[in-house]
Each structure stands twice: as C-alpha cells, then as structure tokens.
Amino acid sequence: MLTRRDLLSKAIALGVVSAGTLLPSQIAEAWDWSDQHPRTVTPPAELGPFYKRDAPKVTRLSQTGDPGLPLHVTGQVFNARGDVLPGAKIEIWHADHEGHYDLRGYRYRSTLTSGEDGTYEFTSVMPGHYPARVCQHVHYLVTAPGCKPLVTQLYFATDPAFDGDPGRNYTRDPLIWSRELVRHVTIKGDPKQMTAVVRFELVLDRL
Amino acid sequence: MTLAAALRILLFAVLTAMPTPAGPPARFADESAARRPSQSADLAMTIDAPAEIRLATVCHGGHVVGAGKDPNVYVWSIPAGTLTGTIAAGERVSTLACSPDGRWIAAGTQSGLILLIDARTRDVAHRLTVTQHLINTIVFSPDSSLLAACPDDGPAQLWNVETGSRGAVLQTPAGASLSVAFSADADRIATADEDTRVRLSERGGKLLRELDAGLLASMDVAFSADGSQVLAAGVDRTITVFDASSGNVARRSAAEADLIGYLMRLPDGHSFAVLELDEFTLAPTMLKAWDIRSGQFRSLLSASDVIGAAIVSNGLVVVTARGDKRRLEIRTVR
Predict the structure, then answer these.
(1) What CA–CA distance (Å, rounded) separates B264 from A181?
(2) Is A177 in CB contact (< 8 Å) with chain B?
(3) Of the candidates A123, A92, A109, A89, which has an alpha carbon nearest to the alpha carbon of residue A204?
(4) Exposure pattern of B308-320 as b/e (b: 16+ CB <10 Å)?
(5) Measured at the alpha carbon of residue A118, what is the angle toward residues A117 and A122, in degrees to the nearest 5?
(6) Do the bridges between strand A70-79 and strand A202-204 make them parallel or antiparallel, or are there none, so unpaired?
C-alpha cells in the first residue's frame, strides 16, 4: 500500500507537484511532519501544590522589564493516534526569575487554547530555581475532549543543575520522571536581546 | 514516661529528603534551626541518632521512628531513647506513619514502595508496590485496618493492612492527592487534591462529594470529631470548614501569613494543631492551634526544627532535629 510519502514522491517525479527549490525528499519530510501517525504519550510529572484555577487567557505571561531570560515556547497538541487536537485547554504556570510562585495573583500563569492545527505558544521568562525543586520547570495541565488529562512539566537542557549533560544528570531532580521532558533550548537574537526558544509537543492519551 | 494512643501522625520532611541542587540556591534555611521553641513545649526525651534524621514520628506502643538520607528506618525506645531496631528499606524513605493500635509502622519510599513493618518484631510483613514514584503521605484508618497512601503521580489508594492487598483507588481527574484523612468510623475518606478540590469518598472508592475550598490547593484535610465537618487548609493560608453532608462552607478562618501545611485534630475535639510553612521554601515556620468554635489561632512554638508530630493521648508531641540532624528532641506541647 502506498504511503503518503510514496504518493508525494511519485507525484513529484511525474511533475504533478512542483518542488520548487526543495528536493522531493525534503517535501516528503515536510509532509510527514504534519502527517498523522501514532505518537508516544507525553510522560507525566507531578501537578504540585501551586496550581491555581481560572488563570487568564494570555499568551504573554511576562511584563515589560521583568528580569530573566525571555522565553518563547511553541508546540502542538496531539492525541496518541496522531490527530491534532484543536481547542485543547492548556494551563501553564511557573515561578518567576527568582523562583517565586505568584499565589496571590496570576503572574506567570495562563490558560491557552490550541489552534485549529493544534498549535500553541507563549512567551514568558525562564523560570528561576524554586527552593523546593532542583530544576527550572514549567507546569502543564492539558485537557481535551476524548483524552485523559495530561499533567506534565517542561524542563530545560540548559539548566545549570544538569552541568551541561542532561542525559546523564536529569535524575538529579527526583521529580523528573523522563529524560524526554528535558527539552533542547535554542538561544536566538543578539547578545543584548537573547531569547530562549523551546518546542514542546504535547501528546494526550485517549480515553 | 509513656506515650500512648497515637491517633494520627503527620510528617513534614518529604521535601527535605531531596538532594540539594547543584548550583541553584539551597532548599532549606538550616541556619534558622538555631531558634528556640517557645516555653509552651516541654522537653520529654532526647535521642542520639546514628545517622542524619529528616523525618520522624512517635508511635503508640512506646517508640520513636525516624528516617533520613540513608535507606534505613530507625526505631528507638521510649523513654530511654535506645536504638532498638534498624530496618533496611532499600531506598530513601519519604514518609512514615504508625498505626493507632500500635501494631504497624509504615514507611513509604521515594520509588513508590510502602514497607509494612511489624512494630513488635521489626520484621517487614508486606512490601506494597503503590507506584513507581515518591509516596507523599501515609495515613492509617482509626481502626488500623486500612492504610491510605498518597503517591506523587496519582490518586490516593487504600490498602488492607492485614493482607497487604490493594483496595479502592480514589478518584482525582488530574494530579495527585496531597493528603488524606479518615472519618472516625473509617467509612469516609477526605482527600486534598492537587487540582484544588477536596473530595469526600466512601471507603469502597465511590465519590460522595466534591468540596470547593478555593482557587488554590488544600495541603491537608481533617474531620471534625463527630465527622459532621471536613476541614481543609493550604496554599491560600486559610482553614475552610465544610458541612460534610451539604458541602457548604460553614466557616473560614482569617488568612495566616504563611501557608498551612498540616492539620491535626487535638484531643479536646475542637482544636486543631496547624503547621505553617514558608511559601518559598516550604520549611515549617510556626506550630499553632486553631479553635474551630472561636476561629482564633494561638501560637504554640517556632517550628523551624520540627521534623514530625503526633497526637498522643495526653496531647501533641513534636520531634525536632537540630544542627547535624543527629540529635532528636521529643517535646510535649502545652
């Protein structure tokens, strides 16, 4: 049976589809990236005591002048079958640059909704080290119809607690249950305006 | 001195047992340990431990149980403070509890096991595999027949103490239960869940009612002496009293300066011992008593050194550890 990749490659070979400046294999890769295929459910992590209901629907969690390295997180929400999940509710919260959670208000807290293509994004600052935890982290509570709620956390490969080797040292934080949650960080921008960019896909188990 | 009838044990040092991060700030302000408790606590006995002790409790049957950074559970006699048992847990212990009938010591570990230890022989009678992650809290039912375990990664589980078999798994749609309490007849269980709800369930696992204590999570729950009310306290710094049958809020305390981490019903039936925690470090700050009738708090002692507490027949007992955490002091609180 032909896969979509095979079909696209044949179409390009027959001149049905123009590849422009891209090689056929690159087009096929791009197609496959958004194609449906089973995905591994995002590993869980603890919810913790500092979740707060009814966070505002904002994509910019930090305010102008907030200390800390600017952070831009993007991702896409799927179910384990590989379907994108539009309209998923993504609640996120994290400590400020110095490791403090805002318990009185909603600083660094948000309720996002995934778009039609399942994507989400937010900007904030890199969380500080909360004293009761080893590693910097962002909490996620993701809910979508037909799926089990996902409670997880995003960690950063650049965290000094990993001493540059998250693969070996992620267990220094006993609450990191999976290496997969420690995400690659790309630093973008010039030295005066650097931003940490992270991609974090969220895959929910089906009910 | 005889300590008897431990009704409920609450342990505070789950987080203190974790490693200090490399680079980030230290997790606990141990220098604050120099502060002295107030005059409302009388020194009853001291223990010199063979290892650093980070959590401890006082059990009916006349012993003190402690654990620290090494993978052992230590048992000392009362009142001599002699080490009478060292039980190899195999991994670091995250929480401890004693059964009210004095028969059992339970030790939860960082990898999701609970060791049920015969308090008399010190033999491990059952190894319960609750989860693969840390056990936050263990509470025995008042009749000592059930054990409720709160793992870090899911809802509270009930276990049959005699057989070592799992019973009901309580319901939480997302996250874990931070704490659990039994009614006096052990027919109902209240849980303080991370999703900010307090849930009331039957011992068979059926959800009876969801209670809304506010936008932030409750960290502990307790029943009133007659079981007609459920108390919840936590991150919002208040104590909320619910009517257990209607779910309505009957009373809410004024907000304290610190988080309220633990509630323990005192023998007078209308007061609750309250352990407050620093918002930033989660380290204990003050031990207070809250009167459910007047709604007033009363300071008992500075709690920066407290690593465990128990209600015994004659009142509240706390265990403190200073300095290198090898010298334990058992104090009765007036």
Answers:
(1) 37
(2) yes
(3) A89
(4) bbbbbeeebbbbb
(5) 115
(6) parallel
Q: Do B22 and A132 touch (CB under 8 A)?
A: no
Residue type, B46: T
Cis peptide before B100 (omega within 30 of 0): no
pLDDT tens digits, one per residue of B138-150: 999 999 999 999 9
Q: Which residue of B has its CA nearest to A139?
A: B175
| pLDDT band at residue A3 under the 50/70/90 scheme | very low
Backbone angles phi, psi at A170, to 5 degrees: -65, -25
- CB of A194 within 8 Å of any CB in chain B? no
Contacts of B280 in chain A (CB under 8 A): 99-100, 130-131
Give this prediction's pTM. 0.85
Q: Are B201 and B216 in contact (CB under 8 A)?
A: no
Instruction: Say if residues B60 and B98 touch (Cβ distance below 8 Å).
Output: yes
* Predicted ipTM of the assembly: 0.84
Q: For the CA atoms of chain A, what is the radius of gyration?
A: 19
- Enter the tokens of residue A34: 């958004």
How far, in whole angstroms, is CA B168 from its chain's centroid?
21
Q: Which long-range contacts (CB under 8 A, 24 or more apart) does B71-76 make?
A: B73/B105, B73/B107, B73/B115, B73/B117, B74/B49, B74/B50, B75/B105, B75/B119, B75/B122, B76/B47
- pLDDT one-digit tens code per residue, B191-211: 999 999 999 999 999 999 999
For B24, the closest of A44, A134, A177 (CB atoms) is: A134
Spatial CA neighbour of A126 closest among A179, A190, A186, A168:
A186
Higher pLDDT, B249 or B60: B249
Task: Note which residues in 263-302 of chain B have CB less than 8 A from chain A.
Answer: 279-282
The answer to whether B257 and B250 are in contact (CB under 8 A) is no
Least confident of A159-168, B32-41, B64-73: B32-41
Instruction: Yes or no: say if A106 and A76 are a contact pair by the CB < 8 Å rule.
Output: no
CA angle B210–B278–A67, rounded 5-degree value: 100
pLDDT band at B35 (very low <50, low <70, confident <90, very high): very low
CA distance B74 to B57: 11
Other CB atoms within a 10 A radius of the CB of residue B229 amount to 17
